[in-house]
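Lab notebook page, bench 4
Experiment: in silico fold of construct C2
Operator: M.H.
Input chain length: 239 residues
Purpose: comparison with the prior construct
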Amino acid sequence: WLPKAHVEAPIAGSMVLAAVLLKLGGYGIIRMTPTNISTTLIYPMIAMATWGVIMTGLTCLRKTDLKALIAYSSVGHMGLVASATLIQTPWSTSGAVILMIAHGLTSSMLFCLANMLYERTNTRMLIAMRGMHKAMPLMTSYWLIASLTNLALPPTINLIGEIQIMATLFNWSPLTIMMTAMGATITAIYSLQMFMTTQQGHLTKDSKETYPAQTRELLIMLLHALPILLLTLNLELIY
Protein backbone atom coordinates (compact mmCIF):
# COMPACT_ATOMS: atom_id res chain seq x y z
CA TRP A 1 0.00 0.00 0.00
CA LEU A 2 2.91 2.39 0.62
CA PRO A 3 3.91 3.10 -3.02
CA LYS A 4 0.24 3.68 -3.87
CA ALA A 5 -0.10 6.10 -0.97
CA HIS A 6 3.04 7.96 -2.07
CA VAL A 7 1.97 8.26 -5.69
CA GLU A 8 -1.63 9.27 -5.06
CA ALA A 9 -0.90 11.73 -2.24
CA PRO A 10 -0.20 15.44 -2.85
CA ILE A 11 3.39 16.56 -2.58
CA ALA A 12 3.06 17.71 1.04
CA GLY A 13 1.58 14.32 1.97
CA SER A 14 4.37 12.44 0.21
CA MET A 15 7.07 14.49 1.93
CA VAL A 16 5.52 14.10 5.40
CA LEU A 17 4.90 10.39 4.83
CA ALA A 18 8.49 9.77 3.76
CA ALA A 19 10.19 12.04 6.27
CA VAL A 20 8.07 11.62 9.42
CA LEU A 21 5.46 8.87 9.37
CA LEU A 22 7.80 6.12 8.15
CA LYS A 23 10.22 7.09 10.89
CA LEU A 24 7.47 6.79 13.48
CA GLY A 25 6.93 3.25 12.19
CA GLY A 26 10.63 2.48 12.50
CA TYR A 27 10.70 3.94 16.01
CA GLY A 28 7.72 1.77 16.91
CA ILE A 29 9.52 -1.36 15.66
CA ILE A 30 12.60 -0.47 17.72
CA ARG A 31 10.53 0.09 20.87
CA MET A 32 8.13 -2.83 20.50
CA THR A 33 10.45 -5.61 19.29
CA PRO A 34 11.24 -7.84 22.29
CA THR A 35 14.91 -8.44 23.05
CA ASN A 36 14.37 -12.19 23.41
CA ILE A 37 12.59 -12.67 20.08
CA SER A 38 12.73 -16.28 18.88
CA THR A 39 14.95 -17.23 15.94
CA THR A 40 12.06 -19.09 14.29
CA LEU A 41 10.33 -15.73 13.89
CA ILE A 42 13.34 -13.54 13.13
CA TYR A 43 14.70 -15.66 10.26
CA PRO A 44 11.70 -15.41 7.90
CA MET A 45 11.12 -11.72 8.70
CA ILE A 46 14.71 -10.71 7.97
CA ALA A 47 14.67 -12.88 4.84
CA MET A 48 11.53 -11.08 3.62
CA ALA A 49 12.98 -7.66 4.49
CA THR A 50 16.26 -8.22 2.64
CA TRP A 51 14.47 -9.85 -0.30
CA GLY A 52 12.17 -6.83 -0.40
CA VAL A 53 15.21 -4.57 -0.84
CA ILE A 54 16.13 -6.45 -4.01
CA MET A 55 12.58 -6.68 -5.35
CA THR A 56 11.84 -2.97 -4.87
CA GLY A 57 15.18 -2.13 -6.51
CA LEU A 58 14.36 -4.27 -9.53
CA THR A 59 10.95 -2.61 -9.69
CA CYS A 60 12.64 0.80 -9.69
CA LEU A 61 14.78 -0.22 -12.68
CA ARG A 62 11.72 -0.60 -14.90
CA LYS A 63 9.54 2.20 -13.52
CA THR A 64 8.67 5.02 -15.92
CA ASP A 65 6.72 7.02 -13.32
CA LEU A 66 9.21 9.22 -11.44
CA LYS A 67 7.14 9.50 -8.27
CA ALA A 68 6.52 5.74 -8.18
CA LEU A 69 10.25 5.14 -8.63
CA ILE A 70 11.08 7.31 -5.61
CA ALA A 71 8.30 5.63 -3.60
CA TYR A 72 9.62 2.11 -4.26
CA SER A 73 13.13 3.33 -3.44
CA SER A 74 11.79 4.57 -0.10
CA VAL A 75 10.26 1.15 0.60
CA GLY A 76 13.57 -0.57 -0.19
CA HIS A 77 15.54 1.55 2.25
CA MET A 78 13.00 0.93 5.00
CA GLY A 79 13.45 -2.81 4.38
CA LEU A 80 17.05 -2.41 5.54
CA VAL A 81 15.85 -0.54 8.61
CA ALA A 82 13.32 -3.24 9.46
CA SER A 83 15.90 -6.02 9.15
CA ALA A 84 18.36 -4.12 11.37
CA THR A 85 15.84 -3.39 14.11
CA LEU A 86 14.89 -7.07 14.37
CA ILE A 87 18.44 -8.08 15.33
CA GLN A 88 18.29 -5.83 18.40
CA THR A 89 21.98 -5.05 18.91
CA PRO A 90 23.35 -1.57 19.74
CA TRP A 91 25.23 -1.46 16.41
CA SER A 92 22.16 -2.40 14.35
CA THR A 93 19.87 -0.01 16.20
CA SER A 94 22.23 2.93 15.74
CA GLY A 95 22.60 2.07 12.05
CA ALA A 96 18.82 1.93 11.66
CA VAL A 97 18.40 5.33 13.34
CA ILE A 98 21.11 6.92 11.16
CA LEU A 99 19.62 5.46 7.97
CA MET A 100 16.12 6.58 8.95
CA ILE A 101 17.27 10.18 9.45
CA ALA A 102 19.28 10.13 6.22
CA HIS A 103 16.42 8.54 4.30
CA GLY A 104 13.91 11.04 5.67
CA LEU A 105 15.90 13.97 4.31
CA THR A 106 16.86 12.35 1.01
CA SER A 107 13.46 10.87 0.14
CA SER A 108 11.62 14.08 1.01
CA MET A 109 14.08 16.01 -1.17
CA LEU A 110 13.53 13.65 -4.10
CA PHE A 111 9.74 13.89 -3.83
CA CYS A 112 9.96 17.68 -3.80
CA LEU A 113 12.25 17.69 -6.85
CA ALA A 114 9.89 15.34 -8.68
CA ASN A 115 6.96 17.63 -7.92
CA MET A 116 8.86 20.64 -9.31
CA LEU A 117 9.28 18.80 -12.60
CA TYR A 118 5.63 17.70 -12.54
CA GLU A 119 4.45 21.31 -12.11
CA ARG A 120 6.41 22.29 -15.22
CA THR A 121 5.71 19.30 -17.48
CA ASN A 122 2.30 18.13 -16.18
CA THR A 123 3.49 14.54 -16.37
CA ARG A 124 5.37 12.11 -14.15
CA MET A 125 6.83 10.09 -17.03
CA LEU A 126 10.62 10.05 -17.01
CA ILE A 127 10.96 10.23 -20.78
CA ALA A 128 8.99 13.52 -20.86
CA MET A 129 11.27 15.16 -18.29
CA ARG A 130 14.58 14.75 -20.09
CA GLY A 131 16.99 17.63 -20.65
CA MET A 132 16.00 19.59 -17.56
CA HIS A 133 19.60 20.67 -17.04
CA LYS A 134 19.15 23.13 -19.93
CA ALA A 135 15.95 24.59 -18.52
CA MET A 136 16.83 24.53 -14.78
CA PRO A 137 20.64 24.35 -14.44
CA LEU A 138 20.68 25.30 -10.75
CA MET A 139 18.28 22.50 -9.82
CA THR A 140 20.61 19.97 -11.43
CA SER A 141 23.03 20.41 -8.54
CA TYR A 142 20.27 19.52 -6.08
CA TRP A 143 19.27 16.56 -8.23
CA LEU A 144 22.89 15.41 -8.08
CA ILE A 145 23.04 15.78 -4.29
CA ALA A 146 19.76 13.89 -3.82
CA SER A 147 20.70 11.09 -6.24
CA LEU A 148 24.17 10.58 -4.77
CA THR A 149 22.91 10.54 -1.19
CA ASN A 150 20.16 8.12 -2.22
CA LEU A 151 22.77 5.67 -3.53
CA ALA A 152 24.86 6.16 -0.34
CA LEU A 153 27.90 7.88 -1.77
CA PRO A 154 30.83 8.17 0.67
CA PRO A 155 31.05 9.96 3.07
CA THR A 156 27.33 10.74 3.41
CA ILE A 157 25.34 9.59 6.44
CA ASN A 158 23.37 7.26 4.17
CA LEU A 159 26.53 5.22 3.64
CA ILE A 160 27.33 5.16 7.37
CA GLY A 161 23.86 3.83 8.17
CA GLU A 162 23.94 1.23 5.40
CA ILE A 163 27.45 0.05 6.31
CA GLN A 164 26.43 -0.40 9.95
CA ILE A 165 23.35 -2.38 8.95
CA MET A 166 25.28 -4.52 6.44
CA ALA A 167 28.00 -5.26 8.99
CA THR A 168 25.42 -6.22 11.60
CA LEU A 169 23.52 -8.48 9.20
CA PHE A 170 26.78 -10.09 8.04
CA ASN A 171 27.80 -10.72 11.64
CA TRP A 172 24.38 -12.27 12.28
CA SER A 173 24.42 -14.40 9.11
CA PRO A 174 27.13 -14.21 6.39
CA LEU A 175 24.59 -15.17 3.71
CA THR A 176 22.87 -11.79 4.03
CA ILE A 177 25.85 -10.04 2.39
CA MET A 178 24.65 -11.32 -1.00
CA MET A 179 21.23 -9.73 -0.55
CA THR A 180 22.45 -6.42 0.86
CA ALA A 181 25.29 -6.05 -1.67
CA MET A 182 22.93 -6.77 -4.55
CA GLY A 183 20.43 -4.28 -3.15
CA ALA A 184 23.11 -1.57 -2.83
CA THR A 185 24.26 -2.17 -6.41
CA ILE A 186 20.74 -1.97 -7.81
CA THR A 187 20.11 1.21 -5.79
CA ALA A 188 23.19 2.83 -7.35
CA ILE A 189 22.04 1.85 -10.85
CA TYR A 190 18.51 3.23 -10.67
CA SER A 191 19.59 6.38 -8.80
CA LEU A 192 22.08 7.27 -11.52
CA GLN A 193 19.59 6.26 -14.21
CA MET A 194 17.00 8.60 -12.67
CA PHE A 195 19.48 11.48 -12.60
CA MET A 196 20.74 10.92 -16.15
CA THR A 197 17.25 10.51 -17.61
CA THR A 198 15.81 13.68 -16.09
CA GLN A 199 18.82 15.97 -16.54
CA GLN A 200 20.52 14.96 -19.79
CA GLY A 201 19.32 14.80 -23.36
CA HIS A 202 17.30 17.24 -25.43
CA LEU A 203 14.31 19.12 -24.10
CA THR A 204 10.94 17.96 -25.37
CA LYS A 205 8.76 20.38 -27.31
CA ASP A 206 6.43 20.75 -24.33
CA SER A 207 9.32 21.56 -21.97
CA LYS A 208 10.98 24.36 -23.92
CA GLU A 209 8.89 27.00 -22.15
CA THR A 210 9.88 25.70 -18.71
CA TYR A 211 10.38 28.51 -16.22
CA PRO A 212 13.47 28.44 -13.98
CA ALA A 213 13.52 27.54 -10.31
CA GLN A 214 11.86 30.01 -7.96
CA THR A 215 13.33 31.32 -4.73
CA ARG A 216 10.95 29.33 -2.50
CA GLU A 217 11.89 26.13 -4.34
CA LEU A 218 15.58 26.77 -3.92
CA LEU A 219 15.02 27.50 -0.23
CA ILE A 220 13.20 24.17 0.24
CA MET A 221 16.09 22.36 -1.43
CA LEU A 222 18.62 24.20 0.73
CA LEU A 223 16.73 23.21 3.88
CA HIS A 224 17.07 19.57 2.81
CA ALA A 225 20.66 19.67 1.60
CA LEU A 226 22.05 21.66 4.54
CA PRO A 227 21.12 19.10 7.26
CA ILE A 228 22.55 16.29 5.11
CA LEU A 229 25.83 18.20 4.82
CA LEU A 230 25.96 19.12 8.51
CA LEU A 231 25.22 15.56 9.66
CA THR A 232 27.81 14.20 7.24
CA LEU A 233 30.44 16.54 8.67
CA ASN A 234 29.44 15.91 12.30
CA LEU A 235 27.62 12.62 12.85
CA GLU A 236 27.69 13.11 16.63
CA LEU A 237 24.74 15.46 16.25
CA ILE A 238 22.51 12.38 15.88
CA TYR A 239 23.69 10.90 19.15
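Observations: The mean pLDDT is 87. The two ends are 32 Å apart (CA to CA).
Next step: discuss at group meeting.
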